[in-house]
Amino acid sequence: MNSLSPKISGELVAKLAKHVLILQNGIFSLAKTVLNGLKSKTISLEGFSQHELHPQVSDSAAVDWIFVVDTLNFSFWSPDDSSCKWEVSHNGRKYTGYFALCAAINRAIQEGVQITDPNYYCNVSVEQLTHILRSDTSTPAPMIKERVSNLHEVGKILVNKYKGSFVNCLEQADNSAQKLLELVITDFPCYRDEADYQGHKVAFYKRAQILIGDIWASFRGKGLGFFTDIDSITMFADYRIPQSLIHFGALKYSDELMAILKSGVELPSGSPEEVEIRACCIHAVSMVCEEVHRLLQEEGIQNLSINSILIDHFLWDYRRQHAEQLETIPFHKTRCIYY
């Protein structure tokens, strides 16, 4: 049985959800905030490549860097009983979460480790990756064995099927984001982010979609990053963006779910509550995107464009910039390789 697409999954689960509600007034309000961000250029395609840890040159090395990072791009949160976060310093700055991963990969490259070469990482040991991701604090990177397993899996496939570079997989997609998504989830099982919900097989494909979105953003939609159907990619359903959507009044949790999250109890991957949170985020962002399109049309603005990827970037950045303020909204804790 084939899974429903992330977009259809979001629509379906949002209709059936018992624990998560999308609030229309919040959608309208957030759409206006996004429109203002577009007008002021705080929301733009330039943001990704301007970050100091992301590739600064649009070339094949950038594609292979993004592929490694997104193969490892999951589950950075620290347990409640840890006194500090996993933290990595690079060029005099300290980073946590996803950016700690980027910093660790860049540090390894500076130290001469061939971490973006599948011929190296298809055989990387637990000890080697532990050293590559070493922390400045007493809290190590979580799920090291799972990260090693991911690298072995995708590395062997790249070497055997794609001549040792993700660029060759990318080129087979013929500038189609959907074709690339299909290639990635078919050929690289660790990217197959799916669940069963009330008899329906639903899909999120967070890392596969963020891989495509990152390549698009890194190349500013040109060259290897040109996709004719990039707007078909949904937001990337993780554990941070729900905090922003609740903050903006676009999403609401049931009292029961909020109590579970505040207690710090982990939600199992594929549990109804976890599926509802992720799916409703996808649908909420799609609704915001549609409303922004409507507002752009209403105002006769033709030189600005929006999609779910850019809204995702805005919501994710907002959560980091207002971390203390949003800390009162609990995030759901699910240990898995998908996000």
TrEMBL record:
MF terms in GO: hydrolase activity
Keywords: Hydrolase
Top-level EC class: hydrolase
Domain of life: Eukaryota
Catalytic activity field: queuosine 5'-phosphate + H2O = queuine + D-ribose 5-phosphate
Enzyme Commission code: 3.2.2.-
UniProt keyword Cytoplasm, yes or no: no
InterPro entries, per the entry: Q_salvage
Entry keyword Hydrolase: yes
GO terms for biological process, alphabetical: tRNA modification
Stated family: Belongs to the QNG1 protein family.
Role: Catalyzes the hydrolysis of queuosine 5'-phosphate, releasing the nucleobase queuine (q). Is required for salvage of queuine from exogenous queuosine (Q) that is imported and then converted to queuosine 5'-phosphate intracellularly.
Protein name as catalogued: Queuosine 5'-phosphate N-glycosylase/hydrolase
